[in-house]
Amino acid sequence: MPWLAVPLISYIILPLVVASMEFIGGRGTVGEDALNEYLVILQLVFLLNIFLFIRKKGFTKDSE
Predict the structure, then answer these.
(1) Is residue 61 part of a domain?
(2) Are 28 and 1 in contact (CB under 8 A)?
(3) How many domains are there within the chain?
(4) Which of 11, 17, 19, 63 is most deeply buried (CB count within 10 A of its CB)?
């Protein structure tokens, strides 16, 4: 997942999260609430990207 795609991927995930929250709780997600949810999703996708990068690297120690 490219680092520059993180905001776009977060924006794509946002309607799914909003729809599921509306279905479960019926809470309004307009204005500040939607912005807060987007920022949380953005942070989660960014942390997922870091986790996948670390996992890909492996960080194995050389046995000498």
Answers:
(1) no
(2) no
(3) 1
(4) 17
- Which residues, including other chains, have CB under 8 Å from residue 17's CB and lie 6 or more apart? 37, 41
Confidence (pLDDT) at 64: 43
Structural domain includes residue 50: yes
Q: Note whether residue 41 is domain-resident.
A: yes
pTM attached to this predicted model:
0.62
Instruction: Please indicate, yes or no, if residue 43 is contained in any of the structural domains.
Output: yes
**What is the mean pLDDT, run by run of 10 residues, along the chain of 64 residues?**
76 81 65 75 87 78 48
Identify the domain containing residue 8 by its residue range: 3-55
Tokens of 43: 């942070």
